[in-house]
Amino acid sequence: MNGKVFILALSTVAVGLVELIIGGILPAIAIDLNISLSSAGQLITVFALVYAVSGPVLLVITSKIERKKLYLLSLLIFFIGNMMTCFSPNFTFMMAARILTAMSTALIVVLSLTIAAKIVSPAHRAKALGLIYMGISSSLVMGVPLGILLSDKFGWRILFLGIAILSIGSFILISILLPRVAGENTLPLSQQIKAVGSLKIGSAHLATMFMLAGHYTLYAYFTPFLETVLQLDSGWISLCYLLFGIAAVSGGAFGGILSDSIGAQKSILVVIVSFALVLSFIPFTTFSCFWQVRNVANGN
Question: Where are the beta strands (DSSP E) in 25-100?
């Protein structure tokens, strides 16, 4: 395995954090900026929309630019966006920072995958791509829970300062160690949009969109739910996010095993139905025996 892939994975840890950490600190941001929770939730919604749209668009626009140069430029913009977030005086300024960060994040993720695939031999390509995705997964498993605890001690702004510093570390390592990678032609946007018009591809995109919408709706307001309904402190909330992250990472492996066992089509149906059932049970989790035991342990 080419050691340079680990440097790319380090960058994906940073971009994974900036995308996911905000869900765990939403109430703190709402209080600090003097806005409602629903308004603060738009910081997640807009980020996701910009991320989804700008990824393919920017990749086509920048297809001729040398990949290392584009990667470094994306990291620089990512750094600026996080510094803007850290020192945001109001909601509008922070929203602008989130839009800037989402655009750079989309490019960093795509470039990490494409560059990783090019700098390793074909035999190690799957491992290289897996390592890139592991960087994002690790930010979910460890970064978000740790970030919630740090936010409780030092404030939410320190998290984005830390992410900015991490991105500068990646910038320095990539500028020194990563080789130049030539740009290449990509599929025009018109053809990409035409492909989505296909019934099979369009339905797959719709299923993914609705599932992710459900996931991010829960994730965005998970902390307010745990704080107000279950009355948990930051330690317990951090533990919940840790379990959430472990389940998310494990789910990828389980999905592969399930697909090999019963086939891709059946496994997709099983996952979608299970996901819908789990979401429908969320309102009833306040009656769980686990929380009763937790309350007794805390003397409540």
Answer: none
Residue 145 or 259, more confident = 145
Name the residue among 209, 214, 211 with its Cα closest to residue 196.
209
**Residue 160 above 80 pLDDT?**
yes
CA 148/CA 12 separation, integer angstroms: 19
Torsion of CA 150, 154, 160, 165, to 10 degrees: -90
The model's pTM: 0.81
Q: Which of 73, 61, 72, 53 is nearest to 186 (CA)?
A: 61
Token pair of 131 as six digits: 């390592």
Cα–Cα distance measured from residue 112 to residue 106, given in angstroms and rounded to the nearest whole number: 10
- In the numeric block, the tokens 């510094």 are attached to 83
pLDDT, tens digit (0-9, with 9 covering 90-100), for 1-39:
567 888 888 888 888 888 888 888 888 999 999 999 889
- pLDDT (tens digit per residue) in 169-212: 999 999 998 888 877 767 666 666 676 677 777 777 788 788 87
Nearest CA to 8 among 147, 86, 104, 119? 119
